[in-house]
Amino acid sequence: MKKIFTIFLLVLCSLTFSNCKKKEQQPDLPPITITGENTFGCYIDGEPYAIFEGTPNPWKLTWTKFSNRFTDSMLFVQISNEDPVWGFYIKIKNFGQIGAFESKNYPFKSRFFDFYTNQDHFLTVEITKAIPNQHYAGTFSGEMINGDGKVIHITDGRFDIKK
């Protein structure tokens, strides 16, 4: 009787666990693209901040702007969210050019809440696609500091925004 019961349990466990399929985990960030996917994402101290179809975290972006807001030589990327409220922006020189640029000091700086870039804590932005006032794609990483001297690290940043 013990043998039959043991065999029954083994068969039951085998059937139960063979029907369990592992859910495919959604990525934290969108892929790096240059095709106009209207995506943005980065890790801030390891926490994902992103927007793309199927975003698996609560950071749903509600407004995106990518423009030469101030002059033709400035690129202004602004991403903001309403609930919870937060914003991230990057300003860099050489609007409309492909290449690597630094976002350090006013007016070419970046900000996230009360964290900002300066001469020692800055973002490096690599523009990989640039069609003025139409389509921009790139990557970024670096760090920001607040008034209390706390530093945050931004890694794996990417954007691909097309109007």
Give the tally of structural domains: 1
Low-confidence region ranges: 57-61
Tell me the series of helices and strands, N- to C-terminal.
Answer: HEEEEEEEEEEE
Mean pLDDT figure: 77
The major β-sheet equals:
6 strands, antiparallel
Task: Note down, in words, how this protein is organized.
- With 163 residues, the chain is mainly β.
- The protein has a single domain, classed as Lipocalin (Beta Barrel), CATH 2.40.128.
- The chain is built from one helix and eleven strands; from the N terminus they run αβββββββββββ.
- It has one helix at 2-18; strands at 39-44, 47-51, 63-67, 74-82, 85-93, 99-103, 110-112, 115-116, 123-131, 135-145, 151-162.
- The chain has a six-stranded antiparallel sheet with strand order 2-1-11-10-9-6, with no helix packed on it.
- The model is unreliable at 57-61 (pLDDT under 50).
Structure described in brief:
The protein is mainly beta and 163 residues long. It has one helix and eleven strands, in the order H-E-E-E-E-E-E-E-E-E-E-E.
Helix and strand arrangement:
Elements: H1 2-18, E1 39-44, E2 47-51, E3 63-67, E4 74-82, E5 85-93, E6 99-103, E7 110-112, E8 115-116, E9 123-131, E10 135-145, E11 151-162
Antiparallel strand pairs: 1-2, 1-11, 3-4, 4-5, 5-7, 6-9, 7-8, 9-10, 10-11
Task: Please name the defining characteristics of this protein.
47% strand, mainly beta, 10% helix, 163 residues, 1 helix, 5-stranded antiparallel sheet, Lipocalin
